[in-house]
């Protein structure tokens, strides 16, 4: 009896009920069940317990989904209810497995329970993927809104800086006008003699567009001589509203010329586009 008890507790009977044994292993279990009533009773108890567990935890899928999964599952699983193949023999020839018992047919419920579990798993995966996609979309929208908010805040700050520039009495406002060859060109800058700062109003700048090989260069007119104040490009949508140039201690006026990219040591006078004096 100790061997029978150990056999029952080995877990092979649970695998037998689940259908996870090889044909030879299944045949061995059936022989043990024929020989030992305790083994047969244990098999029946396991089947009963598993059926009760499946009934308690089963989730009924939709009819349409259930039909599709069950039809596919039944084709692949096959019919495993018959344990031995019937053999023909005469009275003179006896086969060893003639006395093998036929176990009770298993209910179709196992297959439906399995199909329901698969359906629940697929539905859960679909739900998780859909939720993840919605979360990613929400994060993207939030990032766009945050970027717009930051851009708007920067624009407000720059507008405030521009307004303060014009309201600050320490700054001298210089309006540069176009020459005969550039009559529509204009630019506004502010110069603070105390701090020596020179600020160009990019928002009010109206200069002809230049190619990628050239840039505009600002010059301060100091005692009749041009002094380099730095280079800049045409204003764009993303350009700062106010651009700070090089400092200058004193100036009688300012001018802008079109120079090769990177600027020049001396201004190209025939490329002058705007000029303004105090």
Automatic annotation (TrEMBL):
* Segments forming domain Anti-sigma K factor RskA C-terminal: 115-268
Q: Which InterPro entries match?
A: Anti-sigma-K/W_factor, RskA_C
Q: What is this protein called?
A: Anti-sigma factor
Q: What GO biological process terms does the UniProt entry carry, in alphabetical order?
A: regulation of translation
**Transmembrane annotation, as ranges:** 112-132
Q: Does the keyword Transcription regulation apply?
A: no
Note the superkingdom of the native organism.
Bacteria
* Protein keywords: Membrane, Transmembrane, Transmembrane helix
GO cellular component terms given for this protein:
plasma membrane
- Name any one GO molecular function: sigma factor antagonist activity
Q: Does the keyword Transmembrane apply?
A: yes
What the entry lists under Pfam families is as follows: RskA_C
